[in-house]
Design goal:
The structure is a single chain. By secondary structure, the chain is of the alpha+beta class. It folds into two domains: about 140 residues, Jelly Rolls (Sandwich); about 130 residues. The protein is about 60% helix and about 15% strand. The protein contains nine helices and eight strands. A four-stranded antiparallel β-sheet has the order 1-8-3-6. It has a four-stranded antiparallel β-sheet with strand order 2-7-4-5, covered by helices on one side. It is elongated and about 115 Å long. The mean pLDDT is about 75.
Length: about 280
């Protein structure tokens, strides 16, 4: 099969002449994998990268037991395995064929020679690596459960904490009882039964002025606290959305793994039936 059109469609080989594409295609090795077969395993030495000619490949991080952290599902026309191939280190993730897959394998020395001759192609590789790292960081960040209220409260300044404390106090019976007792005490203290001379005689203009200033200050502080509560509610709603989205992704992963298990089981049963009919 001619794989030159596949190579031409990859951004990695953009600008390559037709002769170079044909020469490079001749150096690729075709590998076939059954559904459920592991292609590469995290931690092993990486000596080649792969281009997907047909089929689907799941890039993932191994988890405990049968669980795994899915990073990306690659399809025809995409490639993987370039990270370990470039730095000479071990594989950073595992790759599993989720359907019958045909891959084109490119060895390390061939890629090095190609990048030396075509330096611009290295940018395409770096771009792919950067996108992969962003997806991984975003995925790992979304998997960590967060307490929205605690995160929000830690970001408050002292003035915002003061406003919240004032708003909380104003909405309590403590403040109401304190204001009633203060009013009664002030009225009795500035009456005929109280102190001499009277500091604020009836109709208690100084006390009314103090109450007016208190009300004027309370209004903006309460509004500030309400605005922050609205922001906190929006943060909670966004977190709920992220949790629901993560649950959908996990459900899709479970369905995909069930499909892989069904395909693998069907393949084994077909193999057993084939051997039984042959022996019969």
């Amino acid at each position: 099969m001619n794989v030159t059109p596949l190579l031409r469609s990859l951004p990695l080989f953009e600008g390559l002449s037709e002769e170079d594409l044909v020469a490079l295609a001749a150096r690729l090795d075709r590998r076939e994998y059954a559904a459920g077969e592991m292609i590469v395993t995290r931690g092993e030495a990486g000596t080649s990268m792969y281009f997907i000619e047909s089929g689907d490949v799941n890039i993932h991080l191994p988890g405990e037991g049968s669980a795994r952290i899915s990073l990306k599902d690659n399809g025809p026309g995409e490639f993987f395995g370039e990270v370990a191939l470039l730095d000479g280190g071990p594989r950073t993730a595992s790759a599993l064929a989720t359907t019958p897959t045909v891959l084109l394998e490119l060895q390390r020395e061939i890629l090095e020679r190609y990048l030396e001759q075509h330096p611009r192609a290295a940018m395409a590789v770096l771009k792919s690596m950067g996108q992969s790292m962003r997806r991984t960081i975003s995925l790992l960040d979304s998997r960590a459960a967060k307490n929205v209220d605690a995160e929000f409260d830690r970001s408050l300044s002292w003035s915002e904490r003061l406003a919240d404390s004032v708003a909380e106090l104003n909405g309590s019976w403590k403040f109401i009882l304190f204001l009633i007792l203060l009013t009664l005490g002030w009225c009795l203290g500035n009456s005929a039964f109280g102190m001499k001379p009277i500091l604020d005689p009836y109709p208690y203009q100084f006390f009314n002025l103090a109450l007016a200033i208190l009300v004027a200050l309370q209004g903006p502080l309460i509004v500030m606290s309400q605005n922050r509560q609205s922001k906190k509610d929006r943060a909670r709603a966004d977190t709920d959305y992220q949790v629901n989205l993560k649950n959908e992704v996990n459900i899709e992963t479970l369905l995909r793994e069930l499909g892989e298990f069904r395909n693998e089981t069907k393949g084994r049963l077909d193999g057993l039936e084939g051997r039984g009919s042959t022996s019969g």
